[in-house]
Q: What sequence folds into this?
């Protein structure tokens, strides 16, 4: 990893990842929209090298998947699912329906679950059963009636995770064709109301393209971690956490901001040593080569950089973290202290691991129960109470030049 001073930082450090996939995916989406299952089969054969007659898994296939896993794996999935569900339930409990009555003007909001949701689970480079848990569990907690999981070359562990998470239907299909199928519906894959879950740049581009036809959670780019540390930071832990994100993809970003030159050098050395022992060193090495360690004069500089960078995962390993926590505004999820490993958030601590990347943490948070519900407002106004509103509404309609609006208010006087 290259070590640089804050003064050497350029705008390139803050630049978002730009995908060029959007043009190449439009024809696929159009074909799936027009030809349904036939197109899905064609593209699954082309990209995944699979010939599949029936995309949906049967109960027998799901049961068979359990038989292929050891007890320890199934137990780990269940423990993770329990923690994720508990956190999602707390999120739902924090959202309230209410009604107010101000002299005959009755106003309120209701919280209604979305009816059908598609959860995309990546399966190309690695099987990601944790993403099945993170997508389906908050959806079921929110009350979604039908949760559909799609994953390419679906592995037994992903099947089991989706089943434990409460998925209603599971499909062995992925890529752009899966996103298009969920958006428009095919003979066998139902049209949904919203698509959630991360994927490669083509999946992300497809979600962006179908947005409006269906809702989406967010556009996920390559994975990111940014660590803020002082001399109290643990170099081996920091190096391990940087590499954990780096192994996702060659385009992943793993960076450290520190006030200690000594720590910077120790982390850099530890990264090299740990990288050599990894089975995924080829991928992780490419990401690490493009990542940086930035040395700052003080924590205010570190906070400034972090807020501008708005990373997906933000870790803090400093003596007094409470001094800067309140100043940190832009991140997907925050990990405080050397034992709050980002990997715990990836798998099992509870909060969702589908998080904003590419600096989008400036305006949004990660996947949560709120992504699976609609907040609907209502109003009921008595004749007497309407008299207080007619004059105001009439005047504002007149100012806007909307005569029919003005009439709709005045006619009630």
A:
């Amino acid at each position: 990893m290259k070590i640089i001073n804050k003064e050497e930082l350029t705008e390139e450090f803050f630049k978002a990842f730009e995908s060029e996939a959007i043009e190449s995916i439009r024809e696929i989406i159009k074909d799936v929209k027009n030809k349904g299952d036939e197109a899905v089969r064609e593209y699954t054969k082309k990209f995944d090298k699979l010939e599949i007659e029936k995309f949906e898994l049967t109960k027998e296939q799901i049961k068979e998947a359990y038989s292929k896993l050891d007890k320890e794996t199934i137990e780990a999935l269940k423990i993770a699912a329990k923690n994720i569900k508990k956190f999602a339930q707390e999120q739902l409990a924090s959202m309230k329906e209410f009604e107010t009555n101000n002299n005959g003007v009755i106003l309120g909001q209701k919280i209604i679950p979305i009816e059908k949701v598609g959860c995309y689970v990546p399966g190309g480079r690695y099987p990601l059963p944790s993403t099945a848990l993170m997508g389906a569990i908050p959806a079921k907690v929110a009350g979604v009636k039908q949760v559909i999981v799609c994953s390419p070359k679906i592995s037994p562990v992903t099947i089991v995770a989706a089943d434990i998470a409460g998925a209603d239907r599971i499909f062995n299909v992925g890529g752009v064709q899966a996103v298009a199928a969920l958006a428009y519906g095919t003979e066998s894959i139902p049209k949904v109301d919203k698509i959630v879950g991360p994927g490669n740049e083509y999946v992300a581009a497809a979600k962006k393209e179908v947005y409006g036809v269906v809702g989406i959670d967010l556009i996920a780019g390559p994975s990111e971690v940014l660590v803020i540390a002082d001399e109290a930071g643990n170099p081996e832990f920091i190096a391990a956490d940087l590499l954990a994100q780096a192994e996702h993809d060659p385009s992943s970003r793993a960076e450290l901001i520190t006030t200690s030159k000594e720590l910077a050098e120790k982390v850099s050395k530890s990264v090299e040593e740990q990288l050599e022992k990894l089975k995924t060193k080829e991928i992780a090495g490419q990401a690490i080569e493009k990542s940086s360690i930035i040395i700052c004069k003080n924590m205010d500089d570190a906070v400034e950089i972090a807020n501008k960078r708005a990373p997906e995962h933000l870790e803090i390993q400093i003596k007094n973290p409470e001094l800067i926590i309140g100043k940190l505004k832009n991140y997907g999820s925050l990990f405080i202290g050397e034992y709050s490993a980002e990997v715990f958030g990836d798998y099992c601590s509870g909060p969702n691991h589908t998080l904003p990347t590419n600096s989008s943490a400036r305006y949004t948070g990660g996947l949560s129960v709120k992504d699976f519900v609609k907040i609907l407002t209502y109003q009921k106004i008595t004749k007497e109470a309407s008299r207080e509103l007619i004059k105001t509404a009439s005047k504002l309609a007149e100012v806007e030049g909307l005569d029919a609006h003005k009439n709709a208010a005045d006619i009630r006087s």
